[in-house]
Amino acid sequence: MIKVGQINHLEIVKKTDFGLFLDAGDYGTSLLPNKFAPSGAEIGQFIDVFLYFDSDNQLVATTESPIAQVGEFGLMKIEGVSSIGAFADWGIKDKDLLIPFSEQRTRFSAGQNILVYVYTDKASGRIVGTTKFNKWLDKTPANYQCNQQVDLIIAERSDLGFKAIVEGQHWGMIFKSDVFGKLFIGKRLKGYIKDVREDGKIDLTLQKVGVAKMDDLSEKILDVLEKKGGFLPLNDKSSPESIFSTFRTSKGTFKKTIGGLYKQGKIAIEEQGIRLIS
Q1: pLDDT tens by residue, 141-174
Q2: Are residues 81 and 121 in the same domain?
Q3: Containing H/E element for 242?
Q4: What is the side-by-side order of every strand in the sheet holding 267-269?
């Protein structure tokens, strides 16, 4: 099934001086201009292309990869503003993405980097962007488990911390007390479910909760020690930044974990770092 606004695997059915024609199913054929055609392409060969409608409403193919396909979120730069909305660079050279004024939470100006959701407008059939995410999120029950690893996109900064999009489907919150390292709008990272409340709201954390967190970090520390020849120049006196850069965890969690490993007789805590005990 052909999906406009997404990457499709299509067959080359005709070659011309100006490009390749691809079998686009019910849409007929789609032109892949020569500047995007792979060298040596032949009739009968299948290639991956992104499909979109140009300004003349013609179906066009490109081997470029968009920042976000239909149904996805992506961080994009605003290229300009017109009487109908803002236009964002979504990675397709010949086609900027329109974000209509009606789909903007605030007005944008050229040069801004914003998080955008890409969708197909049912009324016009056009591929457009929106920053009004609420109508696309939390449409299904949040069936997550505590400590379940999930994909996150940082979407908003708030007085409480950072709002994040969970698995492209739900809103979640990373509270300030659970924030470490640099977070910024559009950043993609792994996180964990801290709690799903009775009202459906999701609390997130960047590391596992409770004993599971400690066990996971213990394994990482022992693994790194083995790879580093049994010694690591980090201990309970090290800076939070150096600890985070190595283990992506807070200093408090690191201190508790190496304390547990020390009590188990697995490591020695020295003045200059920690050492693996054989």
Answers
A1: 889 998 899 999 999 999 999 999 999 999 999 9
A2: yes
A3: helix 240-247
A4: 231-232, 274-276, 267-269
